[in-house]
Write a structure and sequence with these properties.
globular, single chain, 10 strands, 1 helix, mainly beta
Length: 138
């Protein structure tokens, strides 16, 4: 029982720490849906104070953050380091979405960042983004 309470407190502290972070705007340069690629640009804004994610397409897509998972890291067999942060959201269309912000550093020095938006019954939408070494301002 003590372990469960400690785990819950630590999880709450971690989520609270992220809730206090301010995200830098994420600039995307391409939208990929299935086999379709659209070279277009815009910004993705994560606002933890308002619990929103806004993707600056025309028209803008707005999501209400319901839950956020702790930041995760993984090292693949080829020594690529991937760091990602996932959000469970409700869209302005009343559908549920999972939004993942992922950054990858490959052994050859290549750095990749994308934001993936998933919902049931639809192809994931991937926004190819400019790499941010540190996505937070504080």
């Amino acid at each position: 029982m003590k372990k469960i309470i400690t785990t819950l407190i630590l999880s709450g502290l971690l989520i609270t720490a992220f809730a206090q972070k301010t995200f830098k705007p994420i600039h995307y340069t391409m939208i990929i849906t299935g086999a379709n690629k659209n070279a277009t640009s815009g910004d993705i804004k994560v606002n933890m104070k308002d619990s929103t994610i806004v993707i600056g397409e025309d028209p803008a897509k707005k999501f209400k953050i319901e839950m956020m998972a702790p930041e995760q890291n993984a090292l693949s067999d080829d020594k690529s380091l991937t760091t990602w942060l996932s959000f469970l959201c409700n869209g302005s269309d009343s559908r549920s979405y999972t939004i993942m912000i992922a950054r990858q550093q490959q052994p050859n020095g290549t750095k990749i960042m994308n934001v993936q938006v998933n919902t049931d019954g639809a192809d994931p939408v991937v926004y190819d983004c400019d790499y941010l070494q540190e996505p937070y301002t504080d």
